[in-house]
Write a structure and sequence with these properties.
The protein is an alpha+beta fold. The chain is built from 13 helices and nine strands. The strands form three sheets. Strands 3-2-8-7-6 form a five-stranded antiparallel sheet, sandwiched between helices. Strands 1-9 form a two-stranded antiparallel ribbon. The radius of gyration is 18 Å and the shape is globular. The termini are far apart. The structure holds 6-diazenyl-5-OXO-L-norleucine (DON).
Length: 319
């Protein structure tokens, strides 16, 4: 049809300049070399550390990508926020709250001590112990069905079918002794139903889903948009689920550094060890970054800087 495309009016302040602001943030931090690529998952150590992508998606559907925004990488811990949302959607606020807490551990994301200090009750779903307990809540009679539910749910957030990065999965499955220990520790405290090895396997697969910075921004914008994917128009979760999820992400999304981040940038944000970060501004949209070099807490250095810049330039800070 020879009909002119309707131009999106966008929703962010100064939306006419968002493209330019995203490109500006990319150029500003392109030379930043701080941090180190994760190497405890062997295949991640081989990634090109120079990759750098940014994306902003508005709840009105505006799309703004820069740099390597379409370069695939594994979602890793960013999956935790979306699986948590699916768990609350399935079981409700109260039940999930009883099984996994909502407070920061103040400790590393893979800490065993944090679990021991709390009698095996995971303090929050953003660290590995809490995420494994959350994945166990996915519906399904078998681990295969649970994995399919995770994949379908995260694909609905992204607005396209996501697939497994088989190389990342195999690399992590061969080296995830600590996560398997966390699974068995949860089981020993009576806090995990089912076979810990199978649940950790579903968790390992969810972390190996392949996404781009653009995908992460769409997924985040779905939470910003009260649960409706702004690109596909599909309702993925309810607005209540988005509120619960974003509260927990604000408290613990960047692990022990979450308070610093909230103080400086003022947005719920979730990171993953492959270098992705997505920050969500409810009612406005989401900004995502991908850059593999990480700080000591496991958060992408350049993504944090660029998203901080975007938050300031676009007026996204919640406070
Ligand atoms: O379970 C793990 O250790 C990884 N699959 C995910 C950890 C992660 O992404 C921590 N984040 N920054």
């Amino acid at each position: 049809l020879d009909v002119p495309q309707e131009v999106s009016t966008g929703t962010l302040p100064g939306w006419e300049r968002v493209d330019e602001i995203v490109r500006e943030a990319h150029a500003r931090y392109a030379g930043e070399r701080g941090g180190r690529v994760a190497d405890y998952i062997p295949v991640l150590a081989e990634v090109d550390p120079e990759l750098f992508g940014l994306a902003v998606i508005e709840v009105g559907g505006g799309v703004h990508d820069a740099g390597d925004a379409l370069h695939p990488f594994s979602i890793q811990s960013i999956s935790k926020m979306f699986v948590y949302a699916l768990a609350i959607q399935e079981h409700g606020h109260e039940r999930v709250r009883d099984i996994v807490g909502v407070n920061n551990t103040g400790l590393a994301f893979n800490s065993v001590v944090a679990l021991e200090l709390n009698e095996g009750h995971p303090r929050n779903p953003m660290v590995n112990a809490g995420a494994i307990a959350t994945t166990a809540l996915m519906p399904g009679a078998t681990a295969v069905e649970q994995w399919e539910r995770v994949r379908e749910g995260l694909s609905a957030f992204a607005g396209r079918p996501l697939s497994l990065d088989g190389e990342v999965y195999a690399s992590e499955a061969a080296s995830n002794d600590r996560n398997r220990a966390l699974g068995w520790l949860l089981k020993s405290y009576g806090r995990l139903a089912g076979d810990p090895d199978q649940i950790v396997d579903v968790y390992t697969r969810q972390c190996a889903l392949s996404v781009t910075a653009h995908d992460l921004a769409v997924m985040g914008a779905t939470l910003a948009d009260g649960g409706v994917n702004p690109i596909t128009g599909e309702r993925v979760v309810t607005a209540d689920v988005c509120r619960d999820t974003l509260a927990v992400v604000a408290a613990s999304g960047l692990y022990e550094n979450s308070g610093d981040w909230l103080f400086e940038i003022g947005l719920p944000a979730k990171s993953g060890v492959a270098g992705g970060i997505v920050a969500v501004s409810p009612g406005k949209g989401a900004a995502a970054g991908f850059s593999p070099r990480l700080d000591d807490a496991g958060n992408s250095v350049r993504s944090q800087m660029a998203i901080g810049h975007l938050s300031r330039s676009l007026g996204l800070n919640l406070f």
